């Protein structure tokens, strides 16, 4: 606090002198065992999913301060500390919005894929290629310089309830490995990389195990899933009590990358549960789906001009105040929350009727992508261009475990295997989708993953 006050005082002096203003800093989020940390304090994600205009607009809200600034005022009023953004343009500058978020104490977690540059879940092998990885790495380049970039999603709902999609898991996991290797190879700070999973009963546990098995270079930094099972109900009716039990002992930090319901008026009891000792030993918070009100009717803020003008007036819907109240009434717990400091890897899931992955080996980094580790990714293609899924130059062989040169050798650029997993689909339909008896929804992210 003392040093913060000093920085503020200096900033005030600078402002008076009309000199450059010194920014207050924000401490990057790290992990230990199955929890997130900021410095020595455990960190809980208390946030929202943020994609004004929805997937149909496919607009990067962090590249335009006319869009982000009014929303950051709302984020401050809500009291959120993390936002997830699905569509970002790696050819644009994000300094204004990222710094404004940082000044508000807000971290960002980003999807590294977009509709054009993603893994095709229906035919993943060819889509894991150098053109795809160049875009993914360029997204890392665009955001890792901001200390409030919490991390990146290597895929979103690529695996869903069709068991054939479990075959795409290798490519998503290879992408995860490649992103983490790229971050080390470029000498960047350790921003976090993980997968955002659909909550599918038939493969929930296999998917979680898969992203936490193998050598350290192959594992993720965190695991997240999108959960639509709490609909103005409670901890037990939603089945969250069982999920906490299922994930007890899991070796990575877990959070909900989406939680939502559009069927009832919400009181956001989810936050009470997430911040209580019923969950904190296993979960580290979550992100409300979603901030803006779109066709799928989840949002809590209406941009009254719609997609025609995403910088238009913002109107708080009734659930805005309810969400703010739930956050205020349920602060992040102090202390350790009962986390497990020595969480570790686990065996990879066996092949069975629902998980049809034959091997624990991952595809090798495509030859054409190796140069990015030493030269950098160069200019990103943004949200335009020819796309990557049929670009050719895919991986031709499997990699030896450990080829991604684990974190022990920070900064080393190994020649390794890399694979990516994102899927193709028409971006952004959030069509209601039944998964194993519960109603779930493909989000924007789902569209990317599709
Ligand atoms: C599952 O996906 C495969 C491969 O894309 C497709 O051929 C099959 O029809 C799908 N099955 C269902 C039930 O949708
Ligand atoms: C959002 O604003 C538009 C324009 O005023 C209005 O037509 C629409 O009904 C509003 N939506 C909600 C959910 O309030």
From TrEMBL:
Listed Polar residues bias regions: 388-398
Name of the featured protein: 1,3-beta-glucanosyltransferase
Bias type Low complexity, positions: 399-412
Subcellular location field: Cell membrane
For membrane topology, the record states:
Lipid-anchor; GPI-anchor
Function noted in UniProt: Splits internally a 1,3-beta-glucan molecule and transfers the newly generated reducing end (the donor) to the non-reducing end of another 1,3-beta-glucan molecule (the acceptor) forming a 1,3-beta linkage, resulting in the elongation of 1,3-beta-glucan chains in the cell wall.
Entry's InterPro entries?
GH, Glucanosyltransferase
Q: For the region Disordered, what residue ranges are annotated?
A: 380-412
Q: Which first-to-last residue range defines the signal peptide?
A: 1-18
Name its species: Lasiosphaeria ovina
* Any one Gene Ontology molecular-function term assigned to this protein's record: 1,3-beta-glucanosyltransferase activity
Q: Which GO terms describe its cellular component?
A: plasma membrane; side of membrane
Sequence similarity: Belongs to the glycosyl hydrolase 72 family.
User: Which Enzyme Commission numbers does its entry carry?
Assistant: 2.4.1.-
Alphabetic keyword roster: Glycoprotein, GPI-anchor, Lipoprotein, Membrane, Signal, Transferase
Q: Which residues cross the membrane?
A: none
Q: What class of enzyme is it?
A: transferase
Any one GO biological process: fungal-type cell wall organization
Q: Which Pfam families match?
A: Glyco_hydro_72
